[in-house]
Specification:
Blueprint: H1 80-91, H2 103-117, H3 122-133, H4 140-157
Helix pairs in contact: 1-4, 2-3, 2-4, 3-4
Length: 159
C-alpha cells in the first residue's frame, strides 16, 4: 500500500519557479474574491442542505438486489449450501453488522470460494473478509476471529 501526502503553503497564491537562467521568470498571482453573494431570493439564514423529501410515489423495483420481506429475511430463495453456511455462522454466534438479509455473509462465502478456486493469496483474502465483517467489533483481534469463522464456515459448508 502506498500512502502519499500533498501539502501546500500560502494563501490564495500560486508561485511558479524555474531553473535560474538569463531569461526572465514570470509568476502569476490569483486572488479569490472576498465574498460571494447568494442569488436573489435565497434564504441564507439557515445554511446547509436544501429542504427535500423523498417522493412517496417512488418504489423499489420488484427484482432489486437485496430486496427483503417485512420480516427481514431475504426475498430470494436461498440454496441448500447457503442455508448450511448461514446455519454454521449462527451456531458460532457470528453476526455481521447491518447484514439483515445475509447479503454480506453470502457475498463473503462466494468470495472465499472464488479465491480458493483461484489459489488466491490467503492473507489478501482474509484482509478483505476482515474489512467486510469487522465493523462493529471492539478490537482488531475480535474482527480477525470473526473473519476466521466466516472463512472456515465458507470452506466447510459453501465451497
Amino acid at each position: 500500500m502506498i500512502v502519499g501526502t500533498c501539502t501546500a503553503c500560502g494563501g490564495d497564491d500560486s508561485t511558479a519557479s524555474a531553473p535560474i537562467t538569463a531569461s526572465p521568470v514570470t509568476t502569476t498571482h490569483f486572488q479569490s474574491p472576498t465574498s460571494i453573494n447568494a442569488p436573489a431570493g435565497t434564504d441564507t439564514s439557515k445554511p446547509g442542505m436544501p429542504a427535500t423529501a423523498p417522493n412517496p410515489s417512488t418504489t423499489q423495483p420488484k427484482e432489486f438486489p437485496g430486496t427483503t420481506t417485512k420480516t427481514g429475511t431475504t426475498a430470494a430463495p436461498v440454496s441448500v449450501k447457503a442455508q448450511r453456511y448461514l446455519a454454521a455462522l449462527k451456531r458460532q454466534n457470528v453476526t455481521i453488522m447491518g447484514d439483515t438479509d445475509n447479503t454480506i455473509a453470502l457475498t463473503m462465502a462466494q468470495f472465499v470460494c472464488d479465491q480458493r478456486g483461484k489459489n488466491g493469496d490467503p492473507t489478501s483474502m482474509k484482509a478483505f473478509v476482515v474489512a467486510a465483517v469487522g465493523p462493529g467489533e471492539k478490537t482488531v483481534e475480535a474482527a480477525n476471529t470473526k473473519a476466521d469463522k466466516v472463512i472456515r464456515a465458507a470452506h466447510e459448508n459453501y465451497c
